[in-house]
Amino acid sequence: MHRNTPNNIRNPGICWTRLVRYFCLSFMVDTMYLSTNDDLTEEDLVLLLFYLQAFLVCMSVAVLPLFIEQRAVFARERANSSSSVVSYVCANFLATLPGIFLIAVMSTTLVALLEGLNAFEYFLLNLFLSLVVAESMMHVGAAVPHYIIGIALGPGVFGMVMLCEGFMVPCDSIPDYWIWGYYLAFHSYSFGSFVFKQFENETSDEGIMVAYGNECMDTCVFGCT
């Protein structure tokens, strides 16, 4: 932990390059979906929520090559019995949390506030947890010999779950042989939560809530029987 945190700060590819990339994309989204744009409809906001949940999460894979480079150092230390797998994984996980939280705060501030989205705190929590779960794709680095293979596998998995999360094809219309992807992917729950918190208090949102299967999310979240 005492080594991973300074390394993450010094290495521009792990934190600072990601921060700049997320800032640029969030700023572009912000200027397109300004709350003063009266031409935007509620359906347009659903597209915004999908983009934020899907693409911002997918960009987490870009840091995979840097973690694979660190794997060689860990392999030497593991061979010398100076480090364990559990301590290495836990230290890496904890060291990445501050940077992920900073990215989530910046993206949420740029998008949720200026777009006038509802539930700023919930939006921040949802995006932060989604980015944390996306870091689990770093496990791909332990299974592939080269970062190019990891870069190919990571977006491939994320692309598959984007199709299954209930935006492009509603949950009720997903074929039985793909429905497992809907329930397995954390994208489904993250996107559904974004939609629910944005439209739960709107008066003309019934069609949107029903279309994305969120019309009874309040009862399901708080103990539906």
TrEMBL record:
<dbReference type="GO" id="GO:0016020">
    <property type="term" value="C:membrane"/>
</dbReference>
<keyword id="KW-1133">Transmembrane helix</keyword>
<dbReference type="InterPro" id="IPR052215">
    <property type="entry name" value="Plant_ABCG"/>
</dbReference>
<keyword id="KW-0813">Transport</keyword>
<dbReference type="GO" id="GO:0140359">
    <property type="term" value="F:ABC-type transporter activity"/>
</dbReference>
<feature type="transmembrane region" description="Helical">
    <location>
        <begin position="120"/>
        <end position="140"/>
    </location>
</feature>
<feature type="transmembrane region" description="Helical">
    <location>
        <begin position="20"/>
        <end position="36"/>
    </location>
</feature>
<comment type="similarity">
    <text>Belongs to the ABC transporter superfamily. ABCG family. Eye pigment precursor importer (TC 3.A.1.204) subfamily.</text>
</comment>
<keyword id="KW-0812">Transmembrane</keyword>
<dbReference type="Pfam" id="PF01061">
    <property type="entry name" value="ABC2_membrane"/>
</dbReference>
<feature type="transmembrane region" description="Helical">
    <location>
        <begin position="147"/>
        <end position="168"/>
    </location>
</feature>
<feature type="transmembrane region" description="Helical">
    <location>
        <begin position="180"/>
        <end position="199"/>
    </location>
</feature>
<feature type="transmembrane region" description="Helical">
    <location>
        <begin position="89"/>
        <end position="114"/>
    </location>
</feature>
<feature type="domain" description="ABC-2 type transporter transmembrane">
    <location>
        <begin position="3"/>
        <end position="195"/>
    </location>
</feature>
<protein>
    <recommendedName>
        <fullName>ABC-2 type transporter transmembrane domain-containing protein</fullName>
    </recommendedName>
</protein>
<keyword id="KW-0472">Membrane</keyword>
<dbReference type="InterPro" id="IPR013525">
    <property type="entry name" value="ABC2_TM"/>
</dbReference>
<feature type="transmembrane region" description="Helical">
    <location>
        <begin position="48"/>
        <end position="68"/>
    </location>
</feature>
